[in-house]
Amino acid sequence: MKFDFLFPDIGEGLDEGVIMKWLVDEGDMINEGDSVAEVETDKVTAEIPSPKSGKVGKLMYKEGDTVNVGEVLITIEIEGGESSEAEESVESTEPEAVEEETAGVVGEVIASSEVIPPSTEEVKLSTAPSKGKKVLATPVARKMAKDLGIDISTIVGTGPNGRVMKEDIQKSKGEAPTTIENAKAEEVPPKSPAPVPPTLATAQEIEERVPLTKIRKTISERMSQSRFTIPHTTAMDEIDISKLDEFRKKYKDLLIEEDVKLTYLPFIIKAVIVALKKFPEFNSTLDEASEELILKYFYNIGIATDTDRGLMVPVVKDADKLSIVELAKVIEDVSTRAKENKSAIHELRGGTFTITNYGSIGGHFGIPIINYPESAILGLGRVVKKPIVKDDEIVIAKVLPVSLSYDHRTIDGASGSHFINLLKELLSDPDMLLLRA
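The chain above was modelled as a monomer; its predicted structure follows.
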């Protein structure tokens, strides 16, 4: 019987993807859960698992083609069975193929997450399924259980709707999650699209046309939308962080044993949150249709991260509830995984305010573009030693340049100055920061 495998909904409003690489050939025998293609969306690269076992019939697209949700991706020849193609196609889009930690994504994000624990929001512990009943589980978990000789029907699933995750299999076997994930990262490295060969115009002129990736197109669209929708204004200043530098150095080496990299950024995030609570218009979204300003009293801080695929903005959720040390750990995790193409879609969404650190690559001042539909973004320059006047004396200080871009439709220039002045007060005196945070 021929089964048409329809390209599934790959998460949170995404309706198409680009076939980066076929992982099977026509005529191959595959099992349920085997990955058939590597697909790039506007945020991540994902492997799409087969919902059925059988023989690969026809690959409906070429590598580089764009496929829309609901279109036939491949056909699979299945032995026996009388179920209709419509029923089979519906089954293929159900959430059984959702990768752990990413309830909105069908398939697995290449090189799955390593350290950040999955959110437990609205996740309920299920009772163990009865033996012989079809178990709701991710393809990775099924394969892991099979490889380890574990009866998956005896495992209690902790994922959404009682889904068995790979962590559940590992716990039952007493193995550390990072071991298998690291192996997965080495096994399937992300692939960049091959550039178009250069075209020789004349002996003096050489041009190369490089097709934009799906992610680069999305970045381009979002930057244009932000720049031409929001009237930006930017306030700049320099902050003496000499005392903060001494405070950080005092504890930095002590935390190395805990594998914590203590940078300035966790302190800056704490100061930003204090400022956002005092000036909530900077943590808002403008609803133009209803002419309302939506003030947000939760603090999801986006960390703009430079990657080889373009600018990614992983989000530190509920940053106000984390300590300085906890923030340091989370920042290191989300930025590293973004650079290694390990971020899940939900980890790149839901931000309320963004921080971009162009100082990490040597920049001093810049004019950051607001991460639409947010209302503001803080840019950080490179910390440098420079002479400043302090108590009528010239001293050498550690200075942090900052640039604050904000939506001038809803935020006045004076508010921008007040925001930066509060940051200066907090970051120049770590004791005051800890008291206020």
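The longest strand covers residues 393-407.
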